[in-house]
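From the thread on structure requests for the teaching lab: each student submitted one protein with a one-line request. Submission from student K.M.:

"Model Exopolyphosphatase/guanosine-5'-triphosphate, 3'-diphosphate pyrophosphatase from Prosthecobacter fusiformis, tokens only."
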Amino acid sequence: MSDLPAPPSTEHAIIYVGAASLSLIIGTRTESGSFSLLEHLDKPLPIARDIFRLGTITRSTVEQAAGILKDYLLTVREYGLPLANVRLYNTNILSEAANHEIFLNRLQVTTGLIARLIDDGDMTRLVYQIGLRMLKKNPSLREGHTFISHIGPGNTRALYFNNGRLSAYSNYRLGIYRAREAVAGADGEAAQHLTHLEEHIRGVVDHLAQDYSGYKIDNHVAIGAEIQSVAAELAPAKQGAFRITETELERFTEKLAQLNPDELVRKLHVHYTGGEGIVPALQTNLALARRFGDEALWIPEGDFQRELMLDLMTASPHTANFQDEVVQAACEIGVRYKTDRKHADHVATFAQQLFRELQHLHALDSKYELVLRVAAVLHEVGMFISPREHHKHSLYILLQTEIFGLSTSDREMVALLARYHRRYNPEPNHQTFSDLTREERMVVFKLAAILRTADALDRTHAQRIKTIQLRTEGSRLLILTPGVDDTTVEQIAINSKCDLFREIYGYDILLTKG
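Reply posted by the TA:
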């Protein structure tokens, strides 16, 4: 018998605890990096109902989730998958449950897997990827001004594309189950219930419409599990999308509102927990369509949750195009807070070059390059409040501002880098920094040292130094500044704020014309 180790399994699995169900997909990675689906299971689980009705996940739901997970692990073992090839994700609304940490711990104990919580930034990235694929399939949507809305269980996201590139993004506290539970106790007929629901969502819908009132909109795409699940009932799909008129959507919504839960389940072939969100989802999308004056909505073909899970399995958030979209979104935040755009861009360019050429020193994952670039773009947003201690104001602003495409942890890292872009070093008792692990603190030290250097190179905010070249000489890092003979101002800035670089990397920095 051969003593050679068994070849690694090419099959992988994703388990996703969603708003209304718990799902499993198993598949094989292809050579192209895509994912060939072998198995897809989905079982109802009333997570959203518990959270928005009670503020906590009930014990019965916890036990139900544990039971489903045990069944799914049996399926995983039947395929011969090791646990190392299985990932467990949870819906972003889970963080709103008072007992979400207890719930996550129970999932981890049941499965032996680390239960990962998708946050708002992750969900936004996934919605962006789904929308982008739809634009690629449909030239008329890609080449025009396309507004994409995603009505989720707890939040609504809006993305605006101009000729296939993201131009604007926003997030609102309005969701299907959040709205449903807000009017769940209202008495009356179905028509009255729809009226109560529309009244409840009107404020956010008006706010959203106002935010995009200055944008030309040729097409409106509606993304979401509920509306995608019923779109085939209303129209045939063409080029990966359904086109549904506002009138068709209105009539269909009113018909479904007349059905009791049993009738809805039978008509749409959905489970009860999933069926609960369909009418609120359609009504919310309808309210948006009316407010924008849309003749029709475009809806992607396919199962939203399954696509989301496949993206979790295969998509890389660090492609060059996606990074550019994230940085552009950060620039828009900078405009909002009236930062010096030329300075911010210049610092970001230097920071990126330093990160790449000093990789042998910092040994950080490439994902931190994006974090550093965003921090460079936004390091001075605190000036909007006051130049005095603006680094602290930057920390506060960025902790409270969602940045397109970044997770909560990445955004906190950006905020901390803005906090430490000046000469003040991180201290163990500092807000937010004290919550980090030892490894995360080290990342902050390394990136802050680079950001300070990049910022010092444009100390005058005049972009005098256009390009730089790096060279080491003993214990010194020489930064060559072609075309600039006198770098006294920048060298003084480096001497005053780059002690951290010397402590972290062991090099003194000297500017020279080369």
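TA comment: The chain has three domains: 11-117, 120-314, 320-462. Residues 4-8 have pLDDT under 50 and may be disordered.
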